[in-house]
Design brief:
alpha+beta; Alpha-Beta Plaits; 2 domains; four-stranded mixed β-sheet; two-stranded antiparallel sheet; 7 helices; 10 strands
Length: 270
C-alpha cells in the first residue's frame, strides 16, 4: 500500500471564500444541491451531503454590549469574530461505513482513504446512520450513497485533491498523514505562543474513537461550535463482542434444544 495521505484543515486561516466547494463540485461534476439561504448564516449550502462533499461553515460569535459599570447589558453588540471551517469526510481509520456495507461498494484505497463505488452501491443506506459524523448521504432521485473521495482519481494521477489545489490561503493542506500531523503540531504551538490558548487539534490522534481521522482540523473553539461531535466513536466498535455474545447464545440455545430432544426421545422409549 502507498503512503497514507490525508487532509489537514487549518481553520484559523480559512477566509470563507468557498473556493474549495466550487472546485470540488466542478471536478467531481456534482449537481446543484439548492443553495438555499437559510437566514441563519451567510452559508448557502448548510451541511455536507450527497452533492456537497466540502462544506464551509460560517459561524458568527457575537459579544454583548458592556455597561459603564462593567456589567452585561444582555444586548447583542455585534459580531466579535467569524469562525470559518471547511468540513469534509474524515476518512476514518476505523470506518464504520465500510464495516456495514453489504456489497463492497465502500473500499479502502491504497492511499488509506475510504471511497464509494457508485456502480456497486445498491442504495441500502446502511452506511448513512453508521457514520459518526453524519457525512454520508443518499442523493434524492438517485438513492445511492455519495461522499468525498479525496479526489482518488487525481491522486492516481499524482495530483492533489481539487479543494486543496484551489484553497488560496493553504487552509486545506494535503499530503502524507504523518507529515501533516507534525505540521499541525507546529502550527498549534505557534498559535498557543501567540496567545490563542483556545486553539486545539481535532481528529489527529490515533487513540480517538475512530482510530484517528484521515482528515483532521485545527479549531479555534470547542468542536461542538463547528457542529462536530466532541468524542466521535466508530458505531461498529461493539460488533465483534455482540457477535460473540450472539454466537454463545445460539450455542446455548442449540445445546438446550439438543438436551430437550434427547430427553424427549428417552421418555418416549419408556
Amino acid at each position: 500500500m502507498a503512503e497514507r495521505m490525508g487532509f489537514f484543515t487549518d481553520t484559523s486561516i480559512c477566509i470563507g471564500c468557498k473556493a474549495c466547494e466550487v472546485a470540488c463540485k466542478e471536478w467531481n461534476q456534482l449537481p446543484d444541491d439548492g443553495f438555499v439561504f437559510e437566514a441563519t448564516s451567510y452559508d448557502n449550502t448548510g451541511a455536507l451531503g450527497a452533492s456537497t462533499w466540502r462544506h464551509v461553515a460560517f459561524i458568527e460569535q457575537s459579544r454583548p454590549v458592556r455597561l459603564d459599570g462593567g456589567g452585561d447589558s444582555g444586548v447583542d453588540g455585534g459580531v466579535d469574530r467569524w469562525l470559518m471551517s471547511s468540513d469534509v469526510c474524515k476518512h476514518c481509520t476505523n470506518a464504520a461505513c465500510l464495516d456495514v456495507c453489504p456489497t463492497g461498494a465502500l473500499f479502502r484505497t491504497e492511499f488509506g482513504t475510504v471511497v464509494v463505488q457508485e456502480d456497486i452501491c445498491n442504495g441500502c443506506g446502511y452506511c448513512v446512520p453508521a457514520c459518526p459524523f453524519g457525512v454520508i448521504d443518499r442523493r434524492e432521485g438517485d438513492g445511492r450513497a455519495w461522499k468525498c473521495t479525496m479526489c482518488y482519481d487525481r491522486q492516481l494521477g499524482g495530483l492533489e485533491p481539487a479543494c486543496a489545489k484551489a484553497c488560496p490561503t493553504d487552509s486545506i493542506q494535503f499530503g502524507p498523514l504523518d507529515e501533516l500531523r507534525e505540521r499541525a503540531a507546529d502550527r498549534l504551538a505557534r498559535l498557543h505562543a501567540d496567545g490563542h490558548a483556545e486553539a486545539r487539534l481535532y481528529g489527529e490522534s490515533p487513540d480517538d474513537g475512530v482510530g484517528g481521522a484521515g482528515a483532521f482540523f485545527l479549531l479555534l473553539d470547542e468542536p461542538e461550535v463547528y457542529g462536530l461531535p466532541p468524542d466521535p466513536v466508530a458505531t461498529t466498535r461493539d460488533l465483534p463482542s455482540m457477535w460473540r455474545w450472539a454466537g454463545a447464545a445460539a450455542l446455548s440455545l442449540a445445546g438446550a434444544v439438543a438436551v430437550a430432544f434427547a430427553g424427549g426421545r428417552q421418555g418416549a422409549r419408556r
